[in-house]
Amino acid sequence: MIPRLPPLNALRAFDAAARRLNFARAAADLAVTPGAVSRQIQALEASLGVRLFTRGNRAVELTARGQVYARQVQEAFDRLGLATEQLRGRDPQGPLAICAYPTFAMRWLMPRWRRFHDMHPAIDLQLTTSLAPVDVARDGFDAAVRIGDGNWPGHGAVWLAAVEVFPVCSPALAARLRDATDLRHHVLIHSDPRPDDWPRWLQAAGATGVNGARGPRFETMSLAFQAAIEGVGVAMGVGCLVAEDLALGRLVRPLAFTHRSKREFHLVYPLARANDPRLAAFRGFLAAEAEATT
Question: Per residue in 45-78, pLDDT tens?
Fold first, then answer.
């Protein structure tokens, strides 16, 4: 006997809302109104006899049972999407579609690109960069580089690198920086993807009298690092992304204190794609590279 399932539209609304934890954003993803999403969720909860969300004034959160159901629904949709792609004739030998943050792609992935190609010449990689978080399967990717704690429901994750932040500057500026309080006499360089790095580092370092919000701001971390190389001021470096600049002397660490984030770089992929041999080769390669550089 075929089990009675909830309406597909209600499941789609629940899936989008569970991913976004925001009915308005879920509605935008589905091209419907927030009210329509809310009604679908209410109907689904009534049909199941289970409360899936707790609702606050400005946000919604999944209940414990809602979290379990969300993982299962997401995996089901991902598997359905993969099956549909295979039915439509997606080439299993085609390019492996990867999305990554621009600076991570440039400074961590690209130096390793040739080695992967030499080891797996039959696998082509298709790299897209984005500052915004992506929904890996829904946005058409096989895997994506994300920052987080390693837990993405319905996805596997391979640890790539820690997020260790510390000030970096040109060698010429370093001599004028003896301790963190000296930063108040220098330009602090910011990047849009990591706007909180300076305030967090200053607080953790116990630096007083330094305005962590002032200074020029750049769209990418690469631009911020280049500004520091050119002597514009002091940037907040991320260890795995400035390693080559430090090794070559283009940048130096004027202050020793390092703040390590609990959110780190991972390669994230849908569990529905876990057995794809191209993806298995790529994540195995990156795992080995990550281990070799720790």
Answer: 999 999 999 987 667 899 999 999 998 888 888 7
Q: Flag whether 2 is in a domain.
A: no
CA distances from 111 to 103, 116, 241, 275 (A): 12, 10, 11, 26
- DSSP designation for 169: B
Contacts 24+ apart (CB under 8 A), 77-81: 77/11, 77/12, 77/15, 77/137, 78/137, 78/154, 78/270, 78/271, 78/272, 78/273, 79/272, 81/137, 81/138, 81/272
* Domain-embedded: residue 1: no
- Contact between 99 and 145 under an 8 Å Cβ cutoff? The reply is yes
243-272 per-position pLDDT tens digit: 999 999 999 999 999 999 999 999 999 888
Q: Whole-angstrom Cα distance, residue 253 to residue 99?
A: 30
Token readout for 153 is: 């429901």
Are 209 and 231 in the same domain?
Answer: yes
- Tell me whether residue 107 is in a domain: yes
What is the Cα 145 distance to its own chain's centre?
5
Domain containing 180 equals 164-260
More confident residue, 29 or 220: 220
Enter the DSSP assignment of 93: T
Number of structural domains, the chain?
3
Type of residue numbered 29: D
Quote the tokens at residue 293. 């550089």
Q: How far apart are CA 277 and CA 285, in angstroms?
A: 12
DSSP string, 210-270: --TT-S-EESSHHHHHHHHHTTS-EEEEEHHHHHHHHHHTSSB-SS---EE-S-EEEEEEE
Which are the contacts of 164, defined by CB distance < 8 A and separation ≥ 6?
238, 239, 240, 258, 259, 260, 261
